Amino acid sequence: MFDVLYLSFSAVTWVIVGYKAAAWFRDRSNTDLGLTALMTAGVPLVFLFSAPRVYRAFDRLTGVANLAMVFLYSAVVLFASGATVLLLRWTSRGDDRDRARAALRARLAIGAVAVAWCAAIVCFAVGRPDAVEHPRDFSTAYADAPGVVAFLVLYLAIFGTSLAGLGTLCPRYAATLGPSWLSRGLRTLAVGCWLGLLYCACKLTGFLLSWSGHPQRWLSNGVAPVSASVAALLVLLGFSLPAAGPRAAAWRRLRRLEPLWREVTAEAPEVTITESRWRSRWPFADLEWRANRRMAEIRDVQRGVRRHVEPAALEIARRRGQDARLDARSLAAVVEAAALRRGLANRGTGHVPRPHADSVVVTVSADPAEEHEHLARVADVFHHQLVDAVLGELRELSASHRP
After folding, report:
1. What's the pTM value of the predicted model, to 2 decimals?
2. What's the rounded Cα separation, in Å, for the pair 145 and 139?
3. Which stretches within 272-327 are classed as H helix?
4. Residue 308 CB: number of other CB atoms within 10 A?
């Protein structure tokens, strides 16, 4: 069970690390992104060595019992070191002197971590009283071995300090950004860090209870690893959200715009551009660009049919929407959908009303993201029964005006 669980977590997190690494390869000048890719690589390694079968196989291969634990915790220290450097870089966005001081502090911090971790490995090497494998109960099995306890305490000190610093800074930084995927990612990262501190607290409490003669193995061997696993997933999710979130939103917007785009451009193919063969084969390529392009092409069609829309189309749609007690956003979407459908229908028959509408686009915000969402709502209600009723009333009105 634990093999399947941890190996599954490792596979998922390797995908996320690969995603971050690919982003860094596309923008190698982004030091923070490269550092993030490096430090997050420690998380899937932790899950990999946490699988008991892998743990024992590695020790058999090296001939040193419990050496996998050193590699497992070294991967955690890699993450902690990267987090420390990232923390110092985030807190120094001033002038060159400020950045130089941050770089010096980062070097000193890394040096201190390296010395502490080397000392911890020495303690591990001299402190093991036997050669029995302990993939799941290492801390409780060696609770009476001073060398191993020193190894574990140094590890928890390094890890806990980094988590506390990152967990404190992320919400503060997120508060300055406003609503965004980056702020959501930072807050998710902070939750993961605080949950990681619960893991550290469980381990230290387990040591204290063992030394006092009241061992509680469920705390160190049960609650601690579960909290650490969930914390690791949250941390990786936090690092991934700023990049994955906008792409997921673009994919959702693209799917919502697709039916409307196909319908309104069917009679105006000149407003569309041919997508590359790669984009047609890989549906997740250039999602943001494709969503923006869909919106631009729909807007082109709207501008082209404006002269075919009567002002009454917008007035009737607005009146019916208000009678239906629609909120402001839904009302704007219904008005624009009705105007667009009326314009397409009139253009199909060659009818050009006098006068025509000044615009068929209802601007709801200067924020491009909100405009994209608005057009997606237009797509959602394009064939709504309320829009059908508006067009029916317009046809009746047009028929009554014919001689």
Report:
1. 0.71
2. 10
3. 277-281, 287-305, 311-323
4. 23
